[in-house]
Design a protein that fits this description.
The chain is of the alpha+beta class. It is 32% helix and 23% strand. The strands form four sheets. Strands 8-3-5-4-12 form a five-stranded antiparallel sheet, sandwiched between helices. It has a four-stranded antiparallel sheet with strand order 2-1-14-13, with no helix packed on it.
Length: 368
C-alpha cells in the first residue's frame, strides 16, 4: 500500500528544487521528517530474541504533527482526557467557515488569521449563549482548527464542541434545551463582526470592504445526536496530524498520486488523481506554523475554570458515566519488548541497545 512518505520520496526532490527559494521552513521540515520517519535516519532501539538470537531494529518516529504515521497513542490519550471533562448534557457541533475571498489573507498571515478565527468563533458562541434568552451564563467551548476540504483544497474552518449547559453569574448551573442552542443568523453576524475587527487590529493593511461586512459566512449548528463521543473521535483523528491518512492514498507513480475521498453530498467514495507537484502543494498548505496551537479551550473548559467545570459535571446523570478504567496491570521490565519473536515464536524480544540518528554521527550509516 502506498503512503504519504512514498509521495514525498518520489516527488519531493523535484518539488523542493523548484520551490526551495519560497518554501516556508515549516514545510521543508515537514517533508524531511515524513521522509525520515521510522527509518534508520531517526535512530532507534535494538532488540534481540532471548531464545534464537534474532535481532530487530525498531526505528523512532519523527513526531512531526504533519506525519500520517505518528501520534496514534497521542490521539488516544487526548480523547481519554477530553472524555473525562464531558458533562452529561446534550452537545452541539458548531462549524464556522470563512468566505473564499479571505483565503488569500489567511495564506499570507497564517498565525494571525488562524488565531483570530479560533478566538472569535469561541467568543461569539460564549457571548450569545450568555444571553438570558438562551443559556444565561458561561458555557464551555472546545475549538479545533481544520484548513482542508476532503480533496485537500484550502478550506479554513473551525469545529466547536459545545455542551448545552452554562454557569450563571450567581454560580447557578443552567441546563439548555435538547434541540436548540442559539440562532444561526445572530451567531454568524456576531462572529463576522468580531473576526473582521480582529483582522483589522492584527494584520497590517487589512481593510474590511463592503463584501466582507455584508456577505453570508456559512455556519452550521447541529445537535450531536450521535453523541459527544463520536464527535471527539472525529476531531481526535486530526488533532495530531493533518489533511490525509495513509489509507486514503491508493497509488504513487512517477507522475501522479491517486487518493480516495468521500463526497460530502452523496457520501460516495471517489478517486482523485493529481500530479505529484499538485499533491504536495495541496498537502503543504495545511502545515501549520511552528508552535501554533490548533486546539483551544474556552469558557468552562478553560484551565482557569476547572473548579467550576467540576461542579457543572454534577449534572451528568449516573447512567452517562464513562466506562471504568481497566485495572492497572504491572508494567513489563524496561528491557523487555512485549512482542514475541517473529522467527522462533517462542522467545521474547529484549532490549539490547540504541543506535543514533544518522545526522548525529560522523559517518552516515544504517543500523549496525
Amino acid at each position: 500500500m502506498s503512503e504519504l512518505a512514498d509521495a514525498v520520496r518520489v516527488h519531493g526532490p523535484a518539488y523542493i528544487a523548484k520551490y526551495s527559494a519560497s518554501m516556508l521552513p515549516s514545510h521543508r521540515r515537514a517533508l524531511d521528517d515524513i521522509l525520515a520517519c521510522r527509518t534508520p535516519d531517526m535512530g532507534g532501539h535494538i532488540y534481540e530474541c532471548d531464545c534464537c538470537g534474532h535481532v530487530h531494529y525498531a526505528c523512532h518516529s519523527c513526531k512531526n504533527r504533519s506525519c500520517s504515521k505518528c501520534h496514534t497513542d497521542d490521539t488516544r490519550e487526548w480523547i481519554e482526557k477530553r472524555r473525562e471533562q464531558l458533562i452529561g448534557v446534550p452537545y452541539y457541533h458548531v462549524i464556522f467557515t470563512v468566505p473564499p475571498f479571505l483565503h488569500r489573507v489567511a495564506r499570507s498571515n497564517q498565525t494571525a488569521f488562524y488565531s483570530a478565527l479560533l478566538n472569535c468563533a469561541a467568543r461569539s458562541l460564549i457571548k450569545l449563549c450568555a444571553d438570558p434568552r438562551y443559556l444565561s451564563g458561561t458555557t464551555a467551548v472546545m475549538a479545533v482548527l481544520h484548513t482542508w476540504s476532503r480533496t485537500l483544497e484550502f478550506h479554513p474552518h473551525v469545529h466547536c464542541l459545545v455542551p448545552a449547559v452554562a454557569v450563571a453569574e450567581d454560580d447557578c448551573i443552567v441546563a439548555g434545551h435538547d434541540n436548540f442552542l442559539v440562532p444561526t443568523g445572530a451567531l454568524m453576524k456576531i462572529m463576522r463582526a468580531m473576526m473582521l475587527d480582529e483582522l483589522k487590529r492584527t494584520i497590517p493593511g487589512f481593510v474590511a470592504d463592503h463584501r466582507a461586512r455584508h456577505s453570508y459566512w456559512h455556519l452550521y449548528i447541529k445537535p450531536a445526536v450521535q453523541g459527544s463521543e463520536r464527535i471527539l473521535e472525529y476531531l481526535g483523528r486530526y488533532v495530531h496530524r493533518i489533511a490525509i491518512s495513509n489509507n486514503r492514498i491508493l497509488s504513487v507513480t512517477d507522475e501522479h498520486v491517486t487518493l480516495r475521498y468521500q463526497d460530502s453530498r452523496t457520501l460516495e467514495w471517489k478517486t482523485l488523481t493529481l500530479t505529484g507537484e499538485e499533491f504536495l502543494r495541496r498537502f503543504l498548505q495545511h502545515v501549520l506554523p511552528r508552535g501554533f496551537h490548533k486546539v483551544r479551550y474556552y469558557g468552562l473548559w478553560a484551565p482557569a475554570n476547572r473548579s467550576v467545570l467540576r461542579r457543572a459535571r454534577l449534572l451528568r446523570p449516573p447512567d452517562s458515566d464513562p466506562p471504568p478504567a481497566p485495572d492497572a496491570t504491572p508494567q513489563p521490565d524496561t528491557d523487555v519488548c512485549t512482542k514475541t519473536c517473529p522467527i522462533c515464536r517462542k522467545g521474547i524480544m529484549r532490549f539490547v541497545s540504541t543506535f543514533a540518528r544518522v545526522k548525529d554521527v560522523s559517518i552516515p550509516r544504517g543500523p549496525p
